[in-house]
Amino acid sequence: MEALNFEVIKDTLGQLGGMLLYILLGIILLEIFIYVILGKIFKSKYTLPYMLMIAAIFGISLLIIYPISYEIRLAFTNMSLRHFRTYTLSWAQGLKNLKLIFTEPILKNVKFFSLLSRTLLWTGVNVVFHLAGGLGLALLLNRPMRGRGIYRALLVFPWAIPQIIAVLAWKGEFHFEYGFVNIMLRNLGMQPIQWMISPFWNFVAACITNIWLGIPFMMIIILGGLQSIPLEFYDAAEIDGASRWNQFRTITLPLLKPVLTPAIVLGIIWTFNNFNVPYMINANELESTDILVTGLFRAAFEYHRYGFSAAFAMVIFIVLFVIASVYIRMTHGLKEAYE
Amino acid sequence: MKKILSICLVLVMLLGFVAISYAKVNLILWTKEGEEALDWNKSLNEEFMKLYPDVTIEMVKKTNVEILREDFLTASLAGAPPDILWTVSDHAGPFVAAEIIEPVDDLFDLNKYVESSLNAVKLEGKYWGVPISNGNQLMLLYNKKLIAQPPKDTDELFKVGKELTSDDIYALVWNQTEPFWMVPWLGGFKGKVFAEDGITPTLNTPEMLATLKFLHAMKFDAKIIPPESDYDAADTLFKEGKAAMIINGDWSVSGYVGALGDSLGVARIPKVSATGEWPKPYTSGVYFMLSQGISGDKLKAAQDFVEFVSTMEKQLEMVKLLNRLPALKAALDDPLITEDLLLKGAADQMVVGTPMPTVLEMRCNWDSMKPEMLAVLADIKTPEEAVKDMQASVESCVKTLE
What we know:
Distance between the termini of chain A: 62 Å
Strand content of chain B: 15-25%
CATH superfamily of the largest domain in chain A: MetI-like
Oligomer: heterodimer
Helix content of chain B: 40-55%
Shape of chain B: globular
Number of strands of chain A: 0
CATH class of the largest domain in chain A: Mainly Alpha
Radius of gyration of chain B: 24 Å
CATH class of the largest domain in chain B: Alpha Beta
Distance between the termini of chain B: 60 Å
Helix content of chain A: over 70%
CATH architecture of the largest domain in chain A: Orthogonal Bundle
Number of helices of chain A: 13
Largest sheet of chain A: none
CATH superfamily of the largest domain in chain B: Periplasmic binding protein-like II
Largest sheet of chain B: 7 strands, mixed
Largest interface: A-B, 40 and 45 residues
Order of helices and strands of chain A: HHHHHHHHHHHHH
Structural class of chain A: mainly alpha
CATH topology of the largest domain in chain A: MetI-like fold
Number of domains of chain A: 2
Shape of chain A: globular
Number of helices of chain B: 16
CATH architecture of the largest domain in chain B: 3-Layer(aba) Sandwich
Number of strands of chain B: 13
Number of domains of chain B: 2
CATH topology of the largest domain in chain B: D-Maltodextrin-Binding Protein, domain 2
């Protein structure tokens, strides 16, 4: 591997510099175009706002709107390796893709509802532990104590390191013979576990990894919420003789709800769509531990079922949208705390 | 207004200047090679560019063959594929199905290459790649400090293996997570993954059952292999002297020469005692493939580069540096190969190998064999259940290809 020297830096800048130059020139031309058309020809009073927004609009159109539109179009095709350049685009094909999603295996054996159930289980287990762990740690940290800053920094560490690095490290630690998890189990007199080969334990390994990664985020959000609760409520409750548990139940939880609801919704969405952890931990591509998004990835890029996968992606989006909407409605979580 | 027009004029001139400075032919090459061969890749590019100053080769290294396959499909769809690939033969199947590579029959003189390596990329009556190296086969590599003579057959393997295996040393290691390491044994049990037509998968066979039982016995009865071992674990154990033998491919030989020096030996994978047959590892090699639609100056430059790498000098250079067998027929007779024990061993293994199928359906075979092989090696499924499930999986997968 080459060391980082002047040549390498020069090459990198040369490669990146060209691209950046084109982007910059493109933006300048766009701004000039808007200025000339809106400012000089139409003499519009919104010339400046449009000039300020146009670069962002262009970027969002290119990076978000166009790919999503292309994907919706792809969902109505039968694009695959055998129909790579010449494929059928029709409403009938779209309906056929939809039917295939719910009736035929997504990959080799696993069907949609198995994947959905497993994904719901994955989401439920992870969010519950994130919430419980985050709440517990936040409650512990929300009191005067020595070294609180250091504890907070250490507890945020899993969230701070790049997720891929953390997952790869955990994957190594689940190695049957040389991973610290099995070494610890052996030292405790227990049988080592086949984390990478057993479907059940591979799922557990992914959950352990994701729970470790997700607790800090919840902890930070909840800690912020706890610190915004006025202390007078607790003083008044103490005077009235309320126990710690009653205070937690009647003061802490209700006042945390406006903070908890978006955090849980985010947690559900991120966990439901979490790709890195289940994909990397499932190193042996066990179909029995795939969730919806990893199944989608494999269907698209390993089985090359592009049209089918695009339709599948739309279905996953709808499922997640419904789950999030139902949750928000049921919990009234977005209402003000004092209403 | 005049200021704006002046700025526009300057910008257009600037863009024009940039365009002119790119009038050279720029070939984009994607390579699948790892660290050991990458330096040779780079030196080839530099030498070629000195000989052909109007051509620049921009090489992009892909992390592994799967990434290369996925990225090439995506890039082709986006209309911006690389011009030339340096990759493995089993990519021919998906790339031919997607119509994104060019047949090479009319572009090169293919008679000078080893026929078996050409056959690995023959589909629909045409050739779709130009071989760079020949082989890519698995073989038995052994550490002479731990085992003086490799076992000749599986009975001897188990016997010697039990004596060798201890708390610190394993007799044999191999990548237990990929079915590529299982298929040589399947060949040794006289099995194949396809029926005679070459596209109907046949996995639920007595031969596959015997293979899975053999692998299970290797692990749980003879106990001569680690409880779990992927490619990196096997590779590391062998390099660190904690494994007496490894089944690995010719691409790994130069790394082991570096680690073990003269202690490295190469031999055929031991004969299957039950059938008297040599295991048949898949043979292929590394190939140049050209993007569909490549033409004009780029095609000429690509042809020149392929011819450059196919010269006797460069083929023998590859043999010296990477210990890989050449694709050029004439180079196989060179004393460099015939008098080198490692290369002779590799060639000896290749002779009993079998060309790797490259049809699209092979993907389904790999994907179906893998989880079942893992389940048998984890002792969570019996071989009988595994072969049935393999067949069901592969039939389901083949349906999705349509």
